What we know:
Blueprint (H helix, E strand, L loop, with lengths): L1 H27 L2 E6 L7 E7 L8 H7 L2 E17 L2 E15 L5 E14 L6 E6 L11 E8 L6 E3 L5 E4 L5 E4 L6 E5 L5 E6 L4 H4 L7 H13 L2
Parallel strand pairs: 2-12
Antiparallel strand pairs: 1-2, 3-4, 3-7, 4-5, 5-6, 7-8, 7-9, 9-10, 11-12
Helix pairs in contact: 2-4
Amino acid sequence: MVKKSTNKLILFLTLFLALGATLFFLLKAESITGKKVQSSNPFTYEFEYTADYDVNGDVKGLVAKSDYIVTGHYEKFVENWEMGENYHSEVYTFIVDKELFGATGKTIDVAIPHTVMLESNEDGEHVEAELNLPNYNKPDINKEYVLFLKKLQTKEAYGPASVPFQVEIDSKGKVELKTNTENTEVKKVIKSKNVVHFKTETIDMSKVDKISGKNKNDLLKEINMEIKNK
């Protein structure tokens, strides 16, 4: 009786661990969903990219997620960085005027996630589309920025602490939280005349942006207050 109970327990634990491992890998992967959305010819296949990231549109959320917060300006483009798994970033030199939180040094490299390559093999035909990621916004070297950052593990550079991570300051001291609004979808007609529709997740900043429209001094005061509470 004890031996039978032990065997049942071992079988149960084996099945439980196998299920747990499967769920782990499913949850760790980014989501690229595909579906046929039209029942008559031509078919439209939709592929949407979504990723697991923190979206923060207020100072409290951005400060909480950041290991480093700096002000300064972008100096120059350095390189396109192939991050692996169909992702690539643009790397820029950033001149730090002030370290608000964390010690970075005077000059740092900042990697801005740029694109992801999506792929489809519908109807036996391989097609690709390179689309902008939610965090991408090409920096203006003539403007000042506040950046909310983390240190990258695979490169001697800094990257976004969350989405978005750049606050742009204009010549009048007005600030704007920057995120991607371009190149978020593309449709390709394949040989079968069916359509493959690729798109990346977009962020409706009107629902989360509590920063744009402030002036620089008020923004910095709010950041410093949140840092004290961090």
